[in-house]
């Protein structure tokens, strides 16, 4: 079973910080034109935090954020030439890390929690041999930021656009004599 490794950068994210992504995806070719896979991904600095009342709460924007995703994927190749353009999609689960919330006038640091979300992956690009160049958009709905007492203090924008270059690692074939 081939394994695709795709490092990349976020070219459009909600964060003001530099964003990176890394996807690992084992996949299986089910026909000449289609591949199904199971993608495990991480995106760093893709979220934008918006606090409703800045006079009461603040979030440390210097702290990095991460989104972990896993989803089944489907890719369709438009031709079988040396350079093969493709389109693909996935539907999966996006997991968010906690963030530090500071209450103004207090030294207490609260855990800001963001509920995990279901999201959609849309991607396209082209492959040549074992190399893949891709553009992906991860649509993840906005989420509320909640502190331990259940109060909602703001929202997080989670969607992002990434540009990646991937490499496919294939298991060596055995030769029988």
Can you describe what's shown?
This protein is mostly beta strands and 177 residues long. The protein is built from no helices and 14 strands. The chain has an eight-stranded antiparallel beta barrel with strand order 1-2-3-6-7-10-11-14. The chain has a six-stranded antiparallel sheet with strand order 4-13-12-9-8-5, with no helix packed on it. The mean pLDDT is 90.
Brief rundown of the structure:
With 177 residues, the protein is mainly beta.
Key structural traits:
177 residues; eight-stranded antiparallel beta barrel; 14 strands; elongated
Order of the strands making up the biggest sheet: 1-2-3-6-7-10-11-14
Could you say which overall geometry the principal axes of the C-alpha atoms support?
Answer: elongated
Beta-strand percentage range? over 45%
The tally of helices reads 0
Category from helices, strands and their pairing: mainly beta
Q: How many individual β-strands?
A: 14
In terms of quaternary structure, the protein is single chain
Radius of gyration: 19 Å
């Amino acid at each position: 079973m081939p394994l695709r490794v795709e490092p990349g950068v976020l070219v459009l994210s909600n964060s003001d910080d530099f964003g990176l992504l890394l996807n690992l995806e084992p996949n299986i070719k089910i026909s000449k034109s289609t591949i199904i896979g199971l993608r495990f991904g991480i995106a760093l600095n893709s979220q934008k935090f918006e606090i409703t009342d800045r006079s009461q709460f603040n979030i440390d924007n210097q702290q990095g954020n991460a989104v972990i995703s896993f989803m089944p994927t489907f890719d369709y190749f438009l031709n079988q030439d040396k350079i093969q353009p493709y389109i693909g999609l996935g539907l999966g689960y996006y997991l968010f890390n906690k963030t530090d919330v500071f209450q103004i006038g207090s030294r207490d640091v609260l855990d800001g929690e963001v509920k995990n979300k279901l999201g959609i992956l849309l991607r396209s690009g082209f492959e040549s041999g074992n190399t893949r160049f891709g553009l992906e958009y991860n649509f993840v709905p906005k989420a509320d930021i909640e502190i331990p007492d259940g109060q909602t203090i703001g929202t997080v924008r989670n969607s992002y656009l990434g540009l990646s270059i991937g490499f496919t690692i294939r298991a060596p074939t055995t030769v029988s004599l």
